[in-house]
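Why do we bother with holo predictions? Because pocket geometry can differ from the apo form. Keep that in mind while you read this record for zinc ion.
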Amino acid sequence: MKVIVASFQCESNSRATLHPGKEDFEYFKGEDIFKKLAVKPIFEEAGFEIIPSVYANALPTATVTEDIFFHYERQIIETVEKNPDADGIYIYFHGSMEVDNIGSGELYTLKRIREIVPEKCVIALTLDLHANITDEIGNYADIICGYKTAPHIDQPESQRRAAKALVYALKKGIKPKTYVQRIPMLVKGDTMLTKYEPLKTLEEYSERLEEREDIFGANMFFGHCWIDAPNTSASAVVSAESEEVAEKFAKDLANKLWNTRKEYKFLIEAEEPEECVKRAEEGSEKRIFITDSGDNTTAGAEGDRLEILKLALKIKPSKKWCVAGITSGETVNSLWNAKDGEEVFVGILGEKGVVKSHGEILGWAKEIIGRSLTISFGNVDAVFTELRSAFIEKGNFDKARVDLLSYDVVVVKLGYLFEELKPYADRELFALSDGASCVELKRLGLKRIVRPMFPLEDFEWKA
Ligand SMILES: [Zn+2]
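The structure, written out:
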């Protein structure tokens, strides 16, 4: 048996404006892709010949432009063209890649592959839990296995499940069927956590379904609300030996998820930015973090919004505040030559401040990608960064030459705080701010999604 292995991932945000470039993708080809993928031992153990293609993965950004999409898609297609006799194909996608003028990048790639390989070739996918599934994907993918955890901690396991299912299907000579049941709901991603009910029980149920010999994957996908596209919604997807079983359990999972739609609430303090600023200044805890969720750089936003910084300046706090970081190449470049302690005028704020420190910013792989400049405005320090960055751990503050421990209130451009920052946070406030990653569905102005859609509309529905 011969199996092709590839991965191409980029979670898109159609409200963001920074499109990914080639440099934004972590890229490997050939045997090196297994530095990033967990499936090799499964295929080796099965005695399969493995044809590694490419691994290209960018963190969330704006939509993917056609030239960047084809740059990577073409390489997967070339591998398939060279091996049209492959018995199986395994691809690890995100599932929410939106390509300009094309739509779903995953669907496009699968269609092209199916034009090359014969019908009997079995295609298996691993997808992120936040995938926006197209109705058509079941026509091209035979096995779909999505993550079962949010926040995601089962990426390797999800790859292995799909690979094992692919091996099983090929060895038994089964061509599974995938049934997609879209669910007209789009609940705030940050409120859907699988560690808690009702999702804990639902995911356990989907795991039990996968123990059946005739089911190859039983999944709920929560969808990804930051893409304005017709395929944006939650869904239930089941791959099984027969179409009937796939359909029956996809509908069953869809109804179960739909019935819980009103149960998702924030488990932390989630408030409007003004209220967060007030609570942070008045709070008695040693150190309070505010996450500027609408401008979350780890969800594709630019990180350049000044709303919370301005609110903090307005209250003239008596506590020590730090806002890290604000994307402003203009500020860093124009003021870089000012010495520490020098008074400067910050144009984007229209305020005078004092330069506190010059530092560096880290990229996603912890490499140095640019410079930062920290400017004090009374008790509020703002860390301006040359490029978009994310302060997800203390190391980011250290590199920017900012002493995290010296602050009472810290504002970061994230949704939920990353685990690495939690030891420094005695209290966490989730600001329901505007921006490309705004969590308030009603404020997103989605025009292309299917309607009705809960919670924009409240209505009866059954799969
Ligand atoms: Zn996800």
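The pocket of zinc ion is lined by residues 128-130, 152 (CB under 6 Å).
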